[in-house]
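Entries read chain and fold; for instance:
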Amino acid sequence: MLQSLFLAALWVAGGGQDSILLARQLVDRQPAVMEVGYRPRDGQTVQVNPPGFVWPRARNFTYAFQLARRRDFSSAITVRGIKLSVHIPTKPLEPGKWFWRYGIEVGEQVVWSKPRWFVVPADVPKLAWEWDKWIARLPKGHPRLWVRACLLY
């Protein structure tokens, strides 16, 4: 508890080295009992393509995410400004071994997690997450119910 208060005080103090120290404490931390943890797990063979990526939440931070075919993350796909501790690629991945990591953004810097790897088999179901089409289909009015009006009567 005392460590959590100390880390929160560092964050409130704001910016600079204090925020980087806090990010280093939070990245790759052991998930709490009720947290999902890291998905896909290191060495996992995924059952859907693309898989969803999940990591433990760090409050008051945004994240970066990288996905690559090589452990050194050369030629990585990088996404920045992620607000939730989850990322789902929009296109299926090529079969084979992949590496992923997430990072906590501190200003323009990123404190990266350790690399984790997973395998995409050639025969798993492929899902295309066409978010733009999904969002365009959402009703503009409120409340946004997940049923059509014709089914409410």
